[in-house]
Amino acid sequence: MTTPDEIYAALHDEMGSVLIGKAELVEGMTIALLTRGHVLLEGVPGVAKTTVARLFARASGLGHNRVQLTPDVLPADITGTHIYRESTGEFELQRGPVFANLVVADEINRATPKTQSALLEAMQERQVTIDGETLALPEPFMLIATQNPIEMEGTFELPEAQRDRFQFKLTAELPTRTEGRELLDRFDTDPTLGPDRIERVVTSEELLDARETVAEVYVDGSVKEYVLDVVGATHENPHVEYGASPRATLAFLNTAKARAAITGRDYVIPDDVKALIEPILVHRLVLSTDASLSDVSVVDVLDTIAAETEPPGEDAAEPQAAVSDGGKQE
Q1: What's the rounded Cα separation, in Å, for the pair 109 and 114?
Q2: pLDDT, averaged across the chain
Q3: What's the CA gap between 261 and 144, in Å, rounded?
Q4: What string of H, E and C letters represents the secondary structure of 112-125?
Q5: Structural domains of the chain, with CATH
Q6: Residue 221 to residue 225: CA distance in whole angstroms
Q7: Of 56, 143, 183, 307, which one's alpha carbon is 20 to 30 angstroms from that of 232?
Q8: pTM exceeding the 0.70 threshold for the entire prediction
Q9: Could you write out the DSSP letters of every residue in 173-240?
Q10: In this protein, which residues make up the domain named AAA+ ATPase (predicted)?
C-alpha cells in the first residue's frame, strides 16, 4: 500500500519536472485531495496558477476538466442542461464539465455571482441539481479554483458562503530571482515543456487507502483544545466582524491529520495546526470597518492570533503508551 507520505513525494517529484518552486502549493493540494477538500488558488496573472492545477490533475491521475470562467458563462454551462433531440423527439441530459473527479475553475472571480453560486451545491453536497433532477458527482470530487486578486479590474469577490466551502486558500507568489533564472534556463533548453509531460503517479486504490490512513491519525485532546482556542480567537479579536465557522474547525482537524501523515507521522503535533492557520482562515474572516480604515489586514490578524494563542507541548500530543491493569506503562 502506498502511504500518504509516499503519495506526496511522488506528486512533488513528478510535478517538479515541470514546476519550479511552489512546494507549498503542492503540499496544500495534496492535503486537500486526501481530505476531500477544495482549494482556492490566488495570484496575479502569469504566476502559473492554472499550470499548477493542471500539473496536479495529471499527476494525481484523476479525470479532470478545465472551465474558463468569464462574465458571460451561465450556470448551465458548468452543471449541464437538457437538450432537445429532434431525431428522437426527447430531451437528453447534457452533463456539464463539473462532472469530473477534478475540476479546474479558471479565474472564478471573473464569473458573475449567479454563476459562482452554481458551484456551491457541488462543493458541499458533491451533487448538482439540473431541472429538478439531483445527480451525484464522481468520487473523488475536488475543485481547484484560480482567481486574480480582487483589486484587479473585472473581478467579482466571492461571497462569504462560497469562500467558506474552500478548505484552503493558497497564494501563488512571484518567483525569486534564482527561480526566475532556473525558469529561463529550463525553458531555453526545452521550450515545449508543459503539463503534457507529466505522468500519472497515483492510482485510485492508492488514494483511497491513503485517505483511510489519514483518517486514523491520532489527535490528542490537547491539540483539539488548541484548535478551539485558535478558532475562538477569531471571534474575540476586535478587528474581526465575522470569525471562523464550525466548518473551519473541522478543516483544522482533517488537514492537520493529513499534514502529519504526509510527513510520516501517525499523530498530530501543534505545529501542524499552527502551519495551517493562514491557509484555512485567510479567506474566511470578515474584518470590521475600523480594521479596514486602520489598514489592518487579515494576515495581520492571523499573525497576532498565531503569536498569542498558546499551543500545548509537543510531547503532550504524542499517543501515550498502553497502560496495563496495574497502572504501569507496558
Answers
A1: 11
A2: 89
A3: 22
A4: CHHHHHHHHHHHHH
A5: 4-190 (3.40.50.300), 216-309 (1.10.8.80)
A6: 6
A7: 143
A8: yes
A9: PPPPHHHHHHHHHHHHH-TT-SGGG------HHHHHHHHHHHHT-B--HHHHHHHHHHHHHHHH-TTE
A10: 35-176
